[in-house]
Amino acid sequence: MKKYKKSLKVELTTDQRTVTGSANLLKIRNSGEEEYLILVDYGINSSQSLFDEINSKVNFDVTKLKAVFLTHVHVDHLGKIPILYKNGYRGKMYLTKESNIFIEDILRDNLKIMLEEAKKKGISPKYTEEDIEKVLKNTEAIEYKKKNILKISEDLVIEYIFNRNNHILGSSSIYVRIKKGIENLSFLFSGDWNNKCNILKKKNHLMKEVLRSKNINLILESTYGSNINKIEKPNFETILLDEMKKGKKIFVAVNSLHKSSEVLSRIKDLQEQNENLFKDYSIYLDGKLTNKLNNIYMGILKKNFMPLGIKSILEKSERMKAIEESRTIIVSSAGMMTNGPIKKYLSEFIEDKNATFVICSYCAEGTVGRYLLENFKKRETKVELFGKKFELRATILQAKNLSSHGTGGEMIEEIIKKIPEKHVSAVLLNHGEDQVRQIFSKMIIHETGLSEEKIFLYDSRKKFIFNKNGLKKVIELSNNGVKKENKDKKEKCETHRRVSHRRKWF
Length: 506
Description:
By secondary structure, this protein is of the alpha/beta class. It folds into two domains: 9-227 and 404-500, Metallo-beta-lactamase, Chain A (4-Layer Sandwich); 236-398, Rossmann fold, CATH 3.40.50. Helices cover 30% and strands 27% of the residues. The protein has helices spanning 53-56, 75-78, 81-86, 97-121, 129-137, 208-211, 236-245, 259-273, 275-279, 288-301, 316-324, 342-349, 368-377, 408-414, 434-447, 494-500, and strands at 9-14, 23-29, 35-42, 65-69, 93-96, 139-142, 148-153, 156-164, 172-180, 183-189, 216-221, 249-253, 282-286, 311-313, 328-332, 355-359, 382-385, 388-391, 395-398, 424-430, 455-457, 462-467, 470-477, 483-488. The strands form four sheets. A nine-stranded mixed beta sheet has the order 6-5-4-3-2-1-22-23-24. Strands 7-8-9-10-11-20-21 form a seven-stranded mixed beta sheet, covered by helices on one side. Helix 15 (434-447) packs across helix 16. It is globular. The chain starts with 8 loop residues before the first strand and ends in a 6-residue tail after the last helix.
């Protein structure tokens, strides 16, 4: 009697709830009881402690993990990868050639932060230098646009393509096609996506394999999904010049990788246009890692974007000298203000009315940057930072024109509309706050021919099940990951009922 072989079945889940902590797990069920896992990103939740369960626990069997794909090297996308190797994973991690240049520095910096926190708490770190070495030994750098094949078993193959996007240097969307005989399923993970960038001049691309795929499933970030166009005001240039004219001491909070380069490039342009104003100001770049990464950036891009006369802060003594000056611009990590040298400046100058802190990145819920922005907007006079109470006298501002994330409108035009409507099995919106994703969902329905039944909010509360025909079922999970309720793809979920009542989406 011929043994019956089950058809291809794929489950997709994520640890992510809002904007940070990206992790996408593909569970592939092949013939019989065989089960294989593919992971796209495995990052930390920046709004939580590195020792919280969400940032330290692996909730799947790493012995079944066959590959890890990395969209880019920000810690909210790669920060948990050493924990995989701590728990026994010995397979490959695939990333772009540019990402491979930066990964070691990013991982070691994150380990440094974790070790400092572990020492304060009197506990052991979640991984060690040895685990980072295991990661580095197993990285495989991949070229953009090239179709690659990964054989999982005798009858199961993974095709994958890295597509350039402009979030940071080396960032990508990743196309994954799972093939079993004549059956196949396709997924496009946007990663953190941006359509253009001041210092990155190369264009995004989606390969023809992506555009022609039938039953493709789009997993799209939605950090600014509720916006049709870029928010340009208040912009960084205006903020900086206005605060300089007031004679303020200015601290610019940035991510070390990419955002610091973008900010420095804009400061250089302003400096060339406003020579007299800049004569009275000293410019500093704080942090060993930030300085190192910017030198690498300039080398790869073959472009000097450093402002004239900029000084590096590499030691505590240099930092003390810088803060003694009355008129300074100090560019310092980290962007969300939770870690890095910016913490020292906050502790020192949060009560100084002559100080201005400029935030240049998105700040997730629970981060120091988000907390300060909200309290400054509400004109609160008292804040608590790093276990201490302060008077909030400094100015807290956020530049709106430096986003490294595309808007919902841009993603609709440059991703969704480029794929034939009949070929789209589902659109799953992640990496965004609930309300933003709800609005983004409504925008897609209005701007495209896609039906409401094909669009879902994708986060840790749901499991998506696919077969050869595309999305089959959505399973809602409780907080502990247990099945709560089954829903067929054609049944409207509660989220969409709420969204359908909204008339405006911008």
